[in-house]
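3.2 Worked example (two chains)
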Amino acid sequence: MTRLKAEQITVNYGDKTIIQNLSLALPDQQIIAIIGANGSGKSTLLKALTRILPYQKGQIILDGQQLKQLPTLEVAKKLAILPQSPEHMGDLTVKELISYGRTPYLNRLGQLKQDDYQIVEWAMSATHTLDYQNQVLDSLSGGQRQRVWIALALAQQTEYIFLDEPTTYLDIAHQLEILQLLQSLNQTQKRTIIMVLHDINQAARFADFLIAMKDGQIIKAGTADEVITKEVLREIYQIDATIATDPKTKRPMLLTYDLLTDE
């Protein structure tokens, strides 16, 4: 069963068409990675699926209803998105920021209830952010901040979590830490994780379902074995790739590559 899908959507930036007549069904309770070169439409697709960007044609369906027709609060209870560059949050502490995840559930007075505080505590525990809950967000390392933003999404209690390049600006240890956290959330809490990734090997290792994009179109979608191939990487990146098998995961791995040359 697919709860979230796009049907023949077209998305424009001003007068420029970025995505045209794109259809996609997102598998439930899986980790989904969107890959492709810069300008291929990855982030645009992510924003359209979360209603941040309007689409001009087609429809996006969530639980049998058109996404654009759903009340904002209802969407906020189902979809959470972590942007590529989260906004500067001033002097907010970690706990204060994560508490904003409960906004869609506040009563008319805008006050947190006991249940809300318990959910915030649970989100911090799940993301291992309890130890620095009273620190100001800007005082944290990049990896710690990413954990806090993921905790914010968890506190929102959505079944879908969208992330735009969640490993950007992190060293390789912190990249692995964040991806393993997302994998754990998927496996233990059945959250559907949809993320844009630049690292092909990270996408192959952690994603159950991959979407390869070029020029606003889906070139290939499927498992790592179906998407991380010499032919697909040639098409979306214009590279001549050497593909091996990861000895740890038994999934395909980009071993090395060269730029394509004119023959």
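3.2.1 Second chain
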Amino acid sequence: MVSLKQPNESLEARLRGMVHADAELLALLACVRNLGLNDWCIAAGAVRNRVWQRLHGQTSLLPASDVDVCYFDASMAPDHARAVHNALAAAMPQVRWDVVNQAWSHHFNGLSAVHSLQQGLASWPETATAVGVWQDDAGEVRIVAPLGLEDLFGLRLRRNPAFADESVFRQRVAHKQWQRHWPLLVLLA
């Protein structure tokens, strides 16, 4: 079982500030919020890459390969994520959406079943990737960071210790070439 970290309020405030300053991310959040999902976030590279770019002083964002939308709803059938994807694609067809209901993710990722959105994100390969943002009904930005924000803001690329397969982590580091894009990243084994 993964132990979930307590939030670091100053890092959360920094992340909220970055999100509020990012019109594109705010538009993506509003699009997902309009679907009325329970327990959702935009996560992974859509958040991580933006933070790393800003911490590197990069003003033009690398194009996102996709926008990861995660939600948790065990009451929905496994194919419900396809309907969510289709609704998002209809609303913003220029975006490559990747939608996963974490309640069913164990069927394709080979990991144990999870019982919450936070637990799903806490099972991801890198600590800095396990960060999501969402908007409540009032439009307030909220943060999901079950492994904390310290590695994300500390520019530390670290394997999640709860993620057993180190080879997957190493393959992701080599394939994604994060250190080429963000040379201040420190790879921690």
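3.3 Remarks
The chain has one domain: 9-188.
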